[in-house]
Amino acid sequence: MLRCWAVLALAGCAKPADQPTLRIGFSQCSTTGPWRQAVLAGMERELSFHPEVKLRMLDAHDNSQAQQQQIRELVRGGIDLLIVSPYEAGPVTPAVEEAYAQGIPVVLLDRRITSQQYTAYVGGDNLEVGQTAARYTARLLKEQGSIIELLGARGSSATAGRHEGFTQGLKAFPGLRVAALVKGEWNPTTLQPKLLAALKAHPEVSLIFSHNDNMGRAAAEVVRQLGRTSTVRIIGVDGLDLNLVRQRVLSASLLYSPAGQDAIRTALKILHKQPYQRENKLSTVVIDSTNVLMMMQQSDKILAQQQDIELQQGLLHRLQATYASQQTVLNGLLAALLGALLLGAVAWRSARKNRQINHQLALQNAENDKINRQLVSQNAENDKINRQLVSQNEEILSQRNQLEALSAQARADTEAKLRFFTNFSHELRTPLTLILGPVEELLTSSPDLSTAQRQDLALVRRNTQRLLQLVNQLLDFRKIEVGKMAVRATEGNVVDFVRDIVDLFEKPAQQRGIQVRFLAAEPVLTAWFDGNILDKVFFNLLSNALKFTPEQGRITISLQAIPNGEAVKVSVADTGPGISEQDRPHVFEWFYQGRQRAAGQGSGMGLALADGLVRLHQGQLSFSSQPGQGATFTVTLPRELPQELRAPDGMAIQRAAFDEPEALDEALGAADAAPPAETEVLVLVIEDNADVNDFLARKLRPDFRVETATDGHTGFRLATELIPDLVVCDVMMPGLSGLQVLAQLKSDWRTSHIPVVLLTARSAPEQQVEGVQTGADLYLTKPFNPTFLLESLRTLLANRDRQREHFRRQLSVDTATVAASKADQKFLADLTAIVEANLTKTNLSVEDIARSLGISRMQLYRKVKAVLGTGVSDFIQSLRLTKAREMLLDDGLSITDVAYETGFSTLSYFSNSFKARYQISPSEFRALHLVPPA
């Protein structure tokens, strides 16, 4: 009996004690949207490692009143810890404080309450999210532009934090401003009409900052409807659906970690009385086109690791089920043993049978022990696997941080290289000016050059223009990389357009005995296209074909519509050596030159640039080739283009002509002869490059008086002191730039009349528009033709003479006051007012007027001479006589009174001056205009 009871006692000790169950309540403001679903998924993943924890989640469906009731319901139901993600901070705070007062730990997830009565906070730093968005916006827009901000729910701490951080971040960039705030309330459907109205009211907006990706997706649809996809960029927050960034629906998304796993881990530390942090703020990462693929690969790897964890957990559950089944069998056997002992107590004759049963039980116990040892071993293996998974997760996290750092560094390096290319290309234009200018001058102005000298100079000019073309290609490459190359298409005949380009290659092809054939399936094929873009495409393709085609070869250009008529296909085929197998995968890569060698080996940019421009035009550039049998490049273009790629009505986009020196010389051949060297016209040259400054001065001195300055501050000072007739100014100068000098000249009434010519290496259309909008009369890009510059200056001076005559006519009418509208008219109005106020003073001098205007005598003289073409004394005399003519019509005044009232010292001086001006004496004028009484 004692032996049997001992067995029972051992069996009872073998039964594992039940682990205590921990209850966590979770009040979720909403489960709608990928971010909220990711929060719950993260919690479930973490809880799979803790079967002793039970989670009860209630969804408030974005209703603060419902969330209050649910929090109180969770507390009444009995929980060990409360996790809350508030919808609105204020309304939810009382219910959270009640739970905290009852001794229940409270963990705030993602959003805060208005009280400090909580145990811990887990979530992103919304203030940092807003500040990061502001910094990224400044980098994306080059610190200039207008923005629309899409706000989340009113009363939400996430909305308040992101808005405050974004506002604080923008203070460091005065060129950025928020044009409108749109209350999205986290609802993509209701925000679209509001955003549509805001974008129509603010067409200057170039970026939208959305408080989450879901509203950002809705904003992208609105931008697409307006046809502004290429001009308006969108930044979101969440970073869960990476395809939005990869497909360029969003320009970027700020990763805002769902933090479900972190919330559970913090809760378990609190429940297990382990050390924890009260504030757990998760980092923010910008996801854009530079790192989205890496982030997607990282996410896929983490997902695969999670699937492995789930498989291991499934195996563990099956083993635990086997263990429970074996335990049940053991318990049944123990019950049978107890029955046998009871029977043995009343019937000792069944002892033998009992011994057999005991023997069987012993065997079964041995089997159970074996099973128990297997389970212990399996549990140890599972613990080892879990530790490996934790280690792998930590390693993945470390690798992700390293990749993010490398991505940021790569992005910075790429941007630095692109800036170097752009700045280097701009700097090349200045020495090109100093090469091409004198060469053009020699070719057009030196008739005594020998034939050999002309050939050498023509060779220099061709190669300088070739270098200029390479510089332009580098700038086009930069524009494509940063998305600044805009398509402005007009409807036209593709056949005529391509034929004009082919005609340029007829002469050089004939010189090498190469036959050029142009085959068009139809005489007219209309399509929408941008001539400035396609010109570069076909010029590069034909240049390549001519370069690689041997003498006596053939180049065939064919043009036809594809069968469905929705696109046009242009093919350029040559009979050159073709493209090798090794070169084919790299044909459209930047700066790749290949292994085929040809005369005049290129830079490796032509085909890459052509491919980028065709894709920008929503077309496709492809090629086919067989070694030794030539190559065929085919451009396929859609005949229709979206509205946003079409030029505005009435805006004709002409094909950008390549520099043709002969045509330019012919156009300038009929120019008027230069004025004599002894001229009063003063030209001020402002150029920081000493060589270009000296070159300009030498070219202008035969025709004008020239003063020079080497920086913007000195140039502006000389302009106000000398009042030149014309200013030639470089744009890119240290200190005060050319645009700033221009703005100051046009805003100062002393110099507002002076025509200004800007010279620059910045050739982008938007840069030229900026110069013209600032007030430039002419915008020339380097290198420039000196003869063209000289003729342009003469034209500007002639236009100013016509303007001067217009002002003189205004001063010749009955009233001597000119309306003050523009700066020059305001100057004349002020000058006229001063003279009229002192009209009776016979000793009124030029010095007195200059002193009243606050300028020097010389400045006043040159200003009046420049605006009216006359001296100050003549201007005073003209006003006196104009006023006298009015007063003579008043028969209450004698002619002597009129003379003295208008500042003439003697009557004879007045009469002589009046007759010299109007060819009639004062008395005759009065007799002619005053009718005697009847």
From TrEMBL:
Its EC number is 2.7.13.3. Keywords: Coiled coil, DNA-binding, Phosphoprotein, Transcription, Transcription regulation. InterPro entries: CheY-like_superfamily, HATPase_C_sf, HATPase_dom, His_kinase_dom, HisK_dim/P_dom, HisK_dim/P_sf, Homeodomain-like_sf, HTH_AraC. Residues 682-797 form the Response regulatory domain. Residues 354-413 form a coiled coil. Residues 423-641 form the Histidine kinase domain. It is an enzyme of class 2 (transferase). The modification 4-aspartylphosphate is found at D730. It catalyses: ATP + protein L-histidine = ADP + protein N-phospho-L-histidine. Residues 829-928 form the HTH araC/xylS-type domain. This is histidine kinase. It comes from Hymenobacter lucidus. The lineage of its organism: Bacteria, Pseudomonadati, Bacteroidota, Cytophagia, Cytophagales.
